[in-house]
Amino acid sequence: MKRIRRLVLPLVLLVSFVFGALHAAAAEGLELLGTVVDGSVLTNETEAEDTVYPRLRGSFLSSGSGHIVIAGTRKVTVSGNTSAYQNVDQITVTLHLQQLKNGSWVTVTTLGPRTKYGGHYVSNSRTYSVDGGYYYRVTGGHTAIKGGKPESITSATNALWVP
């Protein structure tokens, strides 16, 4: 019986320490809720989207969108698109999944570029496994080219907390 107690007590302490550390990490991340980092609000929402339009109406580039959604335990789906008013020679979307680490955004992975030739719309989407305990956002590069003239815009979603 004494032997069992000697084994159980350290095990209980270890489990308590691990859960305490996980809880502290989660609480630390959630303390930042509402903070804006490089234009992205840190949230505990389950999805975020940003649709941008050229400041000055371009000749052919209409809009660009980036989207991030919690897709399960430590999984996020990244998606986005680029749209033009008319068919263009080339239309492209490039999406970057970024993680907030030590106060700065770090690109975890890049989806694309995906390019369509002779169209007015292109999109891309993929689900990724991510580390818990961080905020994630999606930034996008959106470009349309017609007659050798490029028009580009960038998008950046708010950030989601992944426990």
Unreliable runs, pLDDT <50, ≥5 residues? 11-26
- How would a textbook summarize the main sheet? 7 strands, mixed
- State mean pLDDT (0 to 100 scale): 88
- What sort of overall outline do the alpha carbons produce when their principal axes are compared? elongated
Write up this protein.
The chain is α+β, with helices and mostly antiparallel strands. 18% of the residues lie in helices and 58% in strands. The chain contains 1 helix and 11 strands; from the N terminus they run H-E-E-E-E-E-E-E-E-E-E-E. It has one helix at 2-30; strands at 36-37, 40-43, 47-52, 61-72, 75-84, 90-101, 104-117, 121-129, 134-146, 149-156, 159-162. Strands 1, 2, 6, 7, 9, 10 and 11 form a 7-stranded mixed sheet that branches. It has a 4-stranded antiparallel sheet with strand order 3-4-5-8, with no helix packed on it.
Write the layout of secondary structure elements.
Elements: H1 2-30, E1 36-37, E2 40-43, E3 47-52, E4 61-72, E5 75-84, E6 90-101, E7 104-117, E8 121-129, E9 134-146, E10 149-156, E11 159-162
Parallel strand pairs: 2-11
Antiparallel strand pairs: 1-2, 3-4, 4-5, 5-8, 6-7, 6-9, 9-10, 9-11
